[in-house]
Design brief:
- The chain is mostly helical and about 80 residues long.
- It has one domain (about 5-30, about 40-75).
- Helix content is about 60%, strand content about 0%.
- The protein is built from three helices and no strands.
- The chain has helices spanning about 15-25, 40-55, 55-75.
- Helix 2 (about 40-55) packs across helix 3.
Length: about 80
């Protein structure tokens, strides 16, 4: 079973939940896996949906800044 969240069909339960959590600011990082390159277009649609919901600056914070901060804390 796969749970895509933001890339799921609009109005699906997982999509609605992911959108709500995102707009409420409940994500620290946001990301995806790359286990299967065939799923990449689906995952990119999810990232595009996130950008539409919260904007490019917030998406950068969730995909670049926050993960980098978390990783640097692990190194220290």
């Amino acid at each position: 079973m796969r749970a895509y969240g933001l890339a799921d069909p609009p109005r699906s339960g997982t999509s609605r939940l992911a959108e709500r959590l995102l707009t409420e600011g409940r994500y620290l990082p946001i990301g995806t896996d790359t286990h299967d390159s065939a799923g990449l277009p689906h995952r990119l649609r999810g990232l595009a949906a996130a950008q539409t919901l919260v904007g490019e600056a917030e998406l950068d914070r969730l995909t670049i800044t926050n993960p980098r901060t978390l990783m640097s804390k692990d190194e220290g």
